[in-house]
Each structure stands twice: as C-alpha cells, then as structure tokens.
C-alpha cells in the first residue's frame, strides 16, 4: 500500500516523484517499464538519435496512412528512467503565451499564461540568472549551447540578412525571430529529468522506484482507482494506492492504459471484450504532433557534425565537456508567422550543422539541414487498441497533413528554408540542395516531397485532453472524469499543442499537478 502510485518515470513522472515525496509522510511509488537511464548514449547530447530503435525506445510506428503514400511514421518514445526526456534533443522552449491563454479561454481555468509562468520559473535553473521570465534556483538546468557550430551562427546571420529579427530568448518577452536554442544541459552533458528531479529524491526512504515494471491495468473499485496491476520479472503483482493513482505514461500509452482499464468509448471497449468502467469517448482522440520536413544542403570546405564521433572528440567531451559531441544537433532556429495577420507564429525552424533526415545523421556527405516545422497544426489523429493484450502496441493514426491548410503552411516553411540557405552567410558554404532538390520547383512538387519525406518531431500530445466538454478526458484539475482518485499528468492532457518543443511544458504540467495533488490531501 502506497499513498501515491505514479505510472511512468518520464519527465512528468520524475517531477511528481520528487515533489510528492518531499512530504516525508507520503509513501510514493514510481513505476517505470524500462530500465535505468545510464550510459554514454544518454549523456552525450549529439548521440540522442543513436537511442532510436534500441531497447531504450518504445519505437512506435503509426498505421500506414494514405496522405503519406502508405508510410508508417516512426514515433520514438523513451523507455527508461527519464523517458523521452532522456533521449530528446534537449531544446528548452515553452511555447507561446497565446497557447496557454487559449487553453484557459476554452474552459481550462488555472492554465492561462500568467498561471503557468510561475511553474516554469520554479522548475528552471537558468544559467543566465533569474528574471521576470526565468527562474535560477530550479532543478532543471537550462544553458546556452556549450560550443555552437560556425554553421549555426551563419544560419542566424542569414536570417538577419533575410530581414528576420534576432532573438536570443525564445522564452522571454517575445517568441518570434531567430537565434540559438537554449538546452537542458550542464557542463555540456544532458541534464535529464532524472538528473533534475529523481536522483536526489531517490535518497528519501518514502520514495520507491521500480524499473522494468510494466503496468497492465488500473484497478477500479466502485468508481475509484484503487491501484494498478504490474507485470514484473514475469510475475503479476497488485499495488494499491491509498490516495491517488497518477498516470504519466505519455500521449501514446496513457490513453492505451486507460482503455485497457475500461475507461474510454464504451463501444470500442466492448469490441475488445473489456468491461466499461467509465464511458469517455474522448480517450485516445485529439492526437497532435508537429510535422517537419528535412530541407538538406551539401557543403564543401567546412567540417560538420558528420565526423563528430571520434576518439579525440570523445576525449574532449569526457575530460572537459567541450567539442562537437556537446551539440544537441538542432542548435539554432526561429519562429515565424506564415501570414502577417496571425496572432502568433505557426512555423518553427530547426537548424542542424549536418544532414539529418529519416531520424538519423546522414554520413554520405557534409551538409546542413533546415527543418521547417508546423507548430499550429489543424490535423488530428487517434490512438486505439489493436487488442486487449496489454503488452501489444496500440494502433496509432497520426492524421497529420490531412488538412490542406497544414500542407500549405509547411510548404511555405520549405520556401523560407530555401530563402535562408540562399543568403550570404550560409550561401558561401552551400554546394547545392539535396532535399527536396532543385527540381522540386513547383507547389505540386513540394507537396509531393512533403508526402514522401515529412516526419513527426517527437511531440505527441492531446490524447487525454483537458477540458469541460463531453469529449474531455480530464478536468482542469487533471482528474479523470467518472473515476475518482485518478489523474493523468503528462503531455496527453494538452487541449491544443503548444507552439514549440514539448518537454519544458510537460515538466510545467507536472509541477502544477503536484500542487493540485497536494492540495487535495
């Protein structure tokens, strides 16, 4: 028996474990299906893509979708302590004020920008010091890039030449403009949610952390979440929760676990022979992500990250926390409105001083990548059960680029990427366009390129949507509707995806959720 049972030790789960176990009277259990978060591949920033499709990755694949010519889009999700926060590109971006004000306007009281900013600041240990927008004492280290690549600096200069404003703080007074990204690193190494929240908390006697513990079902009795069923070392165990069960398994597996537990659309549950605990048709719906396109260029006469993996560079990294291995690959970027009348940016750019496509560094030649990213998509997908087997992967339909509007805006992003590559600071290094290629010179050809090469940016959200309508899964207190003592605390509760990378917002959600849980007693 524990007071709180937390399912999932990703970014949100690590925050919850730390904040709730700070009360020495609270007995807290954190369950993680994967292993620990050790190893150089986790600590070396430039190596994050080497974790893809390994035992530390759930490596989900979406169903074949016609808008992508039947391609199955790859959805990496961390399977270890720290979850995806232990294998992401470490970019620290919060989103736009309008995102959170939009949540509040839709009925999610307490989630407006002015409400959530204190939680961002509480989490943040900003290298530059504190300010009205930033915290300096929080556990999550936020730093400037240790050794930005000359091509990344050239990209920022090219944006200035193209007429876009410079911005050295995407989380400050304004989001628009171009600059270098800040990253969740310390001394050139990844600073994961484990480093930030879990390592210190694990010294507390009232916190128990179990790895390789697969939760297969939430146990509900009389409309209350009483505990969970766990598969560990080949044995099934039952763990009871005296106060609350907190699901922090992410936007793919949180809805899957709810469905397996009889919480979802009644007709779908009955189709799989599952007893209906709560008829919530919104579970698994509203899946959103940020589609992105790799616009790649060849270079000559400049060293890129293609050969960053070498013994001398490894030595520089291990001994001094310096060198190209400290790179998060997507070192620079910016935010742009595709139309001037928009209230906030709908395009984000990620610049990499290497050719990066199909989820990996391209070792076929030196180059750079400008990745236009749609951050205000209208398309929606869904997560469903394939089977009632809790060990089977769910069926994922991304739905991305179904809306013509999304195709148009991402195509505009390709145009801007080409514009930036043609500006002097980058043009002097450019030796031709690799993707989509100079022959893709019409809107139809760019659309064909997007359907063949667009990918997701590893930001799934929205499948346990917060709200006050009938399709909402959780209320503004993150409590699952129709089941007491059960909350969902992760990116799946976002009603609308934020304009930017989603790790910092997920940590904010968990920081605020910890206060909500403690207030409930």
Description:
With 521 residues, the protein is α/β, with parallel strands linked by helices. It is built from 13 helices and 27 strands. The protein has helices at residues 11-21, 40-43, 97-105, 113-123, 150-161, 193-201, 250-260, 266-271, 311-320, 404-421, 424-427, 443-453, 503-520; strands spanning 2-7, 28-31, 60-61, 74-75, 124-126, 140-142, 177-180, 185-186, 189-190, 207-210, 213-221, 224-232, 235-247, 263-264, 278-279, 291-292, 295-299, 332-336, 347-352, 356-357, 360-361, 367-374, 382-384, 395-397, 430-435, 455-456, 486-488. Helix 8 links the parallel strand 14 (263-264) and strand 15 (278-279). The protein is globular. The relative contact order is 0.19.
Uncertain runs: none
Radius of gyration from the alpha-carbon trace, in angstroms: 22 Å
* CATH fold topology of the largest domain: FAD/NAD(P)-binding domain
Question: On the 0-100 scale, what is the average pLDDT?
Answer: 97
CATH superfamily assignment of the largest domain?
FAD/NAD(P)-binding domain
> Can you count the helices?
13
Instruction: Give the CATH architecture of the largest domain.
Output: 3-Layer(bba) Sandwich
**Proportion of helical residues:** 25-40%
Number of domains: 2
| Secondary structural class | alpha/beta
């Amino acid at each position: 028996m524990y007071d709180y049972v937390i399912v999932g030790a990703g970014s949100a789960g690590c925050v919850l474990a730390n904040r709730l176990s700070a009360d020495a009277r609270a007995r807290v259990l954190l369950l993680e299906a994967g292993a620990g978060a050790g190893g150089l591949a986790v600590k070396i920033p430039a190596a994050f893509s080497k974790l893809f499709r390994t035992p530390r990755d759930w490596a989900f694949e979406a169903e074949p979708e016609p808008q992508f010519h039947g391609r199955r889009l790859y959805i990496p999700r961390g399977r270890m302590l720290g979850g995806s926060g232990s294998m992401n590109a470490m970019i620290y971006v919060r989103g736009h004020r309008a995102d959170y004000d939009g949540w509040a306007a839709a009925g999610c009281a307490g989630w407006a920008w002015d409400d959530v900013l204190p939680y961002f600041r509480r989490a943040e240990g900003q290298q530059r010091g504190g300010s009205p927008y930033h915290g300096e004492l929080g556990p999550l280290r936020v730093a400037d890039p240790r050794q930005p690549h000359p091509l990344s600096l050239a990209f920022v200069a090219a944006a200035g030449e193209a007429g876009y404003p410079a911005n050295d703080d995407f989380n400050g007074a304004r989001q628009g403009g171009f600059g270098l990204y800040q990253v969740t690193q310390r001394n050139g190494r990844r600073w994961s949610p484990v480093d930030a929240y879990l390592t210190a908390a694990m010294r507390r006697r009232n916190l128990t952390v179990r790895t390789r513990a697969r939760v297969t079902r939430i146990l509900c009795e009389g409309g209350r979440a009483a505990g969970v069923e766990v598969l560990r070392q080949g044995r099934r165990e039952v763990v009871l929760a005296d106060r609350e069960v907190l699901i922090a398994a992410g936007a793919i597996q949180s809805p899957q676990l709810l469905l397996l537990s009889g919480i979802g659309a009644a007709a779908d549950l009955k189709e799989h022979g599952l007893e209906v605990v709560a008829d919530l048709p919104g579970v698994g719906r509203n899946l959103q992500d940020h589609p992105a396109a790799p616009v790649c260029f060849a270079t000559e006469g400049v060293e890129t990250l293609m050969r960053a993996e070498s013994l001398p560079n490894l030595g520089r990294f291990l001994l001094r926390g310096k060198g190209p291995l400290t790179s998060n690959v997507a070192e620079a970027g910016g935010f742009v409105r595709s139309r001037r009348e928009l209230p906030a940016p709908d395009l984000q750019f990620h610049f990499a001083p290497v050719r990066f496509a199909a989820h990996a560094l391209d070792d076929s030649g030196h180059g750079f990548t400008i990745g236009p990213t749609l951050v205000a998509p209208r398309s929606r997908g869904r997560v469903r059960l394939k089977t009632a087997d809790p060990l089977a992967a769910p069926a994922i339909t991304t739905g991305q680029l179904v809306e013509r509007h999304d195709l148009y805006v991402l195509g505009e992003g390709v145009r801007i990427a080409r514009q930036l590559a043609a500006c002097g600071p980058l043009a002097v290094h450019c030796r031709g366009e690799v993707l989509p290629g100079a022959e893709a010179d019409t809107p139809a050809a760019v659309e064909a390129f997007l359907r063949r090469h667009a990918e997701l940016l590893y930001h799934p959200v929205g499948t346990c949507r917060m709200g006050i309508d009938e399709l909402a899964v959780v209320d503004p207190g993150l409590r699952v509707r129709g089941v007491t003592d059960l909350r969902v605390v992760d990116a799946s509760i976002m009603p609308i995806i934020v304009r930017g990378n989603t790790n910092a917002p997920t940590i904010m959600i968990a920081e605020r959720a910890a206060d909500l849980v403690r207030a409930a007693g």
